[in-house]
Amino acid sequence: MKSSGSLRYIDDFTLLKNLMEYVRATNFAQNRTDQFDKKYYTDYFLPTIYRNYDLPCKFFLDSAYTNHPAFMKTLQNHRDILSGIQADQVRQEVGGALMLRLERLRASLTAYRLAIANCIRLKELLDQYLQ
Q: Tens of pLDDT along 24-37?
């Protein structure tokens, strides 16, 4: 409706305003996920994991491997070799990356909750308008 110019036929300003708020909220939620989360994941999170985990540990992160009993058996004797300051540095960097990831997910969830609230409000207004 928006791109075809059909919105001009809606004579209820409140309905029109809420429709545009819904579009804005859903676009924001989608763009947030597409832009911010993808950039964070590829530019920060993955490089942190690959910098700090050895190859067997990386396999433990992938369910394609952890769901394969024969492969997991080959890794059963794996032991991390870091200790002391090195282990603390790895925990600090990976922990920081995970905490930032959680914060980004929280912000995305908030954006989606706002979009859902706008959708519910728009549905109520449309029901009223169509009656």
A: 898 888 887 777 77
